[in-house]
Amino acid sequence: MALARIARTGIRRSGSSKTNYTTEKEAFSEGISLYKYPSLLENATGKCNNFYTSKLGNMNSSYFQTRGLQATLSSQLHSKEKIACQQSIAENESTRYPGLEATKAGEKPRVVVLGTGWAACRLMKGLDTNMYDIVCISPRNHMVFTPLLASTCVGTLEFRSVAEPIGQIQSALAKDPNCYFYLASCTGIDTSKHEVYCETAENMGQSNERHRFKVAYDKLVIAVGSDPLTFNIKGVKEHAIFLREVNHAQEIRRKLLSNLMLSQSPGISDEDRTRLLHCVVVGGGPTGVEFSGELSDFIKADVSQRYSHVKDRIKVTLIEANEILSSFDVGLREYATNHLIKSGICFVRGIVKEVQKERIVLSDGTEVPFGILVWSTGVGPSEFVESLNLPKCPGGRIGIDQWLRVPSVEDVFALGDCAGFLEQSGRKVLPALAQVAEREGKYLVELLNKMGKQDAGKAYAAKDVVLGDPFVYKHAGSMASVGSYKALVDLRESKDAKGISIAGFFSFLIWRSAYLTRVLSWRNRFYVAVNWATTLVFGRDISKIGN
Ligand SMILES: Cc1cc2nc3c(=O)[nH]c(=O)nc-3n(C[C@H](O)[C@H](O)[C@H](O)COP(=O)(O)OP(=O)(O)OC[C@H]3O[C@@H](n4cnc5c(N)ncnc54)[C@H](O)[C@@H]3O)c2cc1C
Known about the structure:
The chain is built from 19 helices and 25 strands. The chain is an alpha/beta fold. It has 3 domains: 2-96, no CATH class; 99-226 and 381-453, FAD/NAD(P)-binding domain, CATH 3.50.50.100; 236-379 and 477-538, FAD/NAD(P)-binding domain. The strands form 7 sheets. An 8-stranded mixed sheet has the order 1-8-7-6-3-2-9-21. The protein has a 5-stranded parallel sheet with strand order 11-18-12-13-14. Strands 15-16-17 form a 3-stranded antiparallel sheet. It binds flavin-adenine dinucleotide. Flavin-adenine dinucleotide is lined by residues 114-120, 137-140, 146-147, 149-150, 185-186, 223-225, 243-244, 287, 382, 384, 416-418, 432-435, 437.
C-alpha cells in the first residue's frame, strides 16, 4: 500500500470542486464536506475536465490522479467549469456558514492553526500575541506527549501526566478577546477566500447535528498529523486498538485489566482463558517495542503479585514482517531482541492477512487468537490531508518548500507528520517524528514573528518579505525503552552514519531524563516524576475504572 501511495502521488493544487448535479448541490447547501461524501463526487465526474493541465503544462495525466476525491473530480473538469465550480462551492459554503470574518484594517492579523499536536503546540507557544491573534481548531483540547504514552497503558504513568491542556501552552487562547480554541475538525479549506470550514467535534445538544462554521485566516498553519497505516487489511480498524491518543491508552488499560479478571471466572474454558490472556502487538517499530516492554514489566511486577492465579498463563506476542527497530543500529537491534526474548516476549515473523474478532490470520495460514490486539505499523496521510487539493510530496503528505510554505497558494504553511518536502525542493521527506514536528514548529514561529515585524502578517502581505534561512533538520538521535529499566540510545545522525549507540541501564537513565526535561509544563514534569516514584514504591494502579 505504501508503494501504491507513492505511485499515486502527484503534484496537486488547491481548489474545491462543484458540479451542477442536484445531489451534490444539496449536499453542499447542507454544508457537507467533500471528503466525507465520495459518492457525490463520483457521480459528478461526467461533467468535468482536467483543471490542472493548463497550469502545469504537459505532465502525464496519471500524475494528477489522487486519492482525494476533490481531485478525482478536478481531473475531469474543464478549466472554466472547474473555476465556476470552485467559486460556487466557496459561495455556498461561505454564505451558509456563520463564523469569523476576515480581519479588518487596524485589527491584528489572525493566524489559524489546525491541530494541537507537537508541531502546532510548539508554534502556538512561541507566537507573539502582541502581533497576532490566534485561532486554534482541533478535535482535542490538549497535546499528547506521545513518547510516554505507552507507559500509561499499564499504569506506569497516569493519563493526565502525558496530556498538556492547550490553554496552558498558549494562555492567550483562554484569555485574549480575539483568540479562540474551537473543539472542531477542519473539513475543507478555500485558499482563494482564505477561509477554513469546520465541524464541531461533538454533537450540539440533543440533535445529532454537528455545528458547522467557517474561520477566515490571514495565515494558515496546517498541522493535523497523520493516521495509522492499516494497509487495508480486513478487520484491523474494527478489532485492533491503535496507540496514538490518550483514549486509545485508556481503552488498552481497561481491556487488559478486564481480560485479566475475566480469565479468572469459574467455568471459563481453557481455550478462552488462553485467548483472553494473550496480548498481541503488531509492528516492531519503537512504539510496538516500547509497549511490549511496558507489558512485560507489568506482568513481571504486578500481574505476578496481584493476579497470581493466571500469572503463568499471560503471554505477549510481537508480530513483525521484517526486523524490529529497523531504523536503529544493528547492535542495538540485537540487544533489544535478546532482551525482549529474555523478558518472555514471543517474536513471530509474519505478515497479517486478516484480523477477525478474536484471532489474527497470518499469510501462511497460521491463526493467532488474542485477547487484546495493539496495532502499530507506522503512519500515513489522514483522510483529510488526502482530500485537500494542495500539492503533495512523495508519500501523499502536503507538499512544502524549504520555508514550510505550501507553494502555489498564499499564506498557507504545513508542518509535522502531515507535511513533507516537495520533490522539486530536492530534499528528502522527513520522518514522522515528534522532534521533526517540534523543530518545524519552532522554525515557523520565528518566521511568522519575523513577518509580523515586517508588517507582513496580513493576508497577501508577505510577497516582498525577506524570509531568511530555510528550515534545516538535524537528527538528534533516537531512543526507545525496552522494559526492565533498560533502553536504547542511538545518537547517529542517520541510519548509515557513524556515532554513539548504547544500550542498558545507563541508556534508560538518559531516556528518562531526556523525556522528563522535554515534558512541556512543570505541572506535568512533576506528575511524571511522582508517577515513576509511586510505581517504583507501590506498583502500578490496577483498578479498572469505567466501562
Ligand atoms: C505512541 C507514540 C510514541 C511516539 N514516540 C516518539 C518518540 O519517542 N520520539 C519521536 O520523535 N516521535 C515519537 N512519536 C511520533 C510523534 O508523536 C509524531 O511524529 C508527532 O506527534 C507528530 O506531530 P504533529 O504535530 O505533526 O501531529 P500530532 O501530534 O499527531 O497532532 C495532530 C493534531 O491535529 C489534530 N487534527 C487531526 N485532524 C484534524 C482536522 N481535520 N482539523 C483540525 N485538527 C485536526 C489532532 O487532533 C492533533 O491534535 C510517537 C508517536 C506515538 C503515537
